[in-house]
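Severity: low
Component: inverse-folding endpoint
Summary: output formatting inconsistent between runs
Steps to reproduce: submit the following structure tokens with default settings.
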């Protein structure tokens, strides 16, 4: 089955966790080199690889004599500045030995939220790939402040997968995959080989566990799998510490946990709306509008809007929520919040009379909208 799942894969995002390539003692160069060797093999087999590598903070903090987690943000940022150069150097050494090149790409949340910068980052990454260079991406830890952080590299890897239209996300973790219990507490916990759907129950199984070196735990990995799954891409979580794990994956071995995508691939613009553009507000809609959007695949009209939150301009992304405030879609609004306050609840035919002008009948046109829940048919199946 794995062979069939991987047969269409050409562009792969490999996320490498801090817990895989570092320990309390700092960067684990042997482990990093072993993984880099496998990455070179995959390149040689004709796959395009984008690496999202953590480990900057973990690799740099020892140089500063910090034990445990760095306590302050400046300490963390200083550690990342030192560690990042060490990581890139380590990748570069192995790649160069094998006749390949790497490039460092550091991103912040803002870079992907702004459409122009998003397209710019996408162009840079695809140009690197065209030249046969393997990008090594990390969050720009040295400069990020809370508002522009991805937060964790699992999230970053999901956004990068969407950015470069990857075919598969592989998360190298320090555990074998996703278990139905905590294997460190429960010896009967079983590894789930294939996850068909990420249900709330499954999400709760992931808990809030955190690794000691990286930022995320299993729950951030499940969130990443869910994100890319909604965009039509599968995720594989495997143990990066298992020797030659990437070779095993591409030999079709049944390793780790594979998360099947929830729906077919989205267009590039929809992926950007769904994952990268930051929502500035919320529209609450009535049952009729919910059904029209979720079940009938229609645009959002002003008549179905029963609540408006936040302050946003025309062209901003907003969340679409039911009356209870549960999000079910995201979209780019054709009208600003002050305009919407005047036309919400009215028929489209009344827009012009109310505002004195009209951009279009729809508040959110269907092509500018994505469902952020699995569609009804699939979730009922
Ligand atoms: N960007 C951080 C680093 O390189 C890691 C974030 C994470 O562990 O998710 O150290």
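Observed output (run 2 of 3):
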């Amino acid at each position: 089955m794995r062979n069939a799942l991987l047969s269409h894969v050409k562009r792969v995002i490999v996320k490498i966790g801090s817990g895989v390539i570092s320990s309390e003692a700092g960067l684990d160069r042997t482990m990093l080199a072993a993984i880099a060797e496998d990455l070179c093999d995959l390149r040689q087999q004709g796959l395009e690889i984008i690496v999202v590598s953590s480990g900057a903070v973990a690799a740099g903090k020892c140089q500063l004599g910090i034990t445990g987690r760095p306590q302050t943000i400046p300490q963390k940022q200083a550690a990342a500045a030192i560690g990042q150069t060490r990581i890139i150097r380590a990748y570069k050494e192995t790649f160069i030995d094998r006749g390949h090149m790497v490039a460092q790409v550091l991103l912040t949340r803002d870079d992907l939220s702004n459409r122009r910068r998003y397209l710019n980052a996408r162009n840079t990454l695809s140009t690197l790939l065209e030249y046969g260079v393997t990008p090594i991406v990390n969050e720009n830890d040295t400069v990020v402040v809370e508002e522009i952080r991805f937060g964790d590299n699992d999230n970053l890897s999901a956004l990068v997968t969407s950015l470069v239209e990857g075919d598969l996300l592989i998360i190298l973790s320090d555990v074998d995959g996703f278990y139905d219990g905590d294997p460190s507490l429960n010896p009967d916990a079983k590894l789930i080989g294939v996850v068909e759907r990420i249900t709330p129950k499954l999400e709760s199984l992931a808990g809030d566990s955190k690794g000691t070196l990286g930022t995320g735990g299993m729950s951030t990995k499940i969130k990443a799998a869910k994100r890319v799954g909604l965009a039509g891409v599968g995720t594989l979580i495997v143990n990066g510490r298992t020797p030659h794990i990437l070779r095993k994956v591409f030999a079709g071995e049944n390793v780790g946990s594979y998360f099947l995508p929830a729906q077919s691939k989205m267009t590039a613009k929809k992926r950007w709306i769904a994952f990268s553009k930051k929502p500035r507000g919320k529209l609450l809609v009535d049952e009729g509008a919910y059904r029209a959007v979720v079940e009938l695949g229609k645009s959002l009209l002003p008549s179905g809007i029963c609540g408006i939150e936040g302050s946003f301009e025309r062209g901003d992304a907003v969340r679409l929520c039911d009356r209870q405030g549960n999000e079910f879609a995201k979209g780019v609004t054709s009208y600003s919040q002050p305009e919407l306050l005047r036309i919400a609840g009215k028929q489209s035919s009344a827009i012009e009379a109310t505002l004195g002008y009209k951009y279009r009948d729809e508040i959110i046109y269907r092509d500018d909208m994505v469902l952020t829940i699995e569609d009804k048919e699939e979730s009922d199946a």
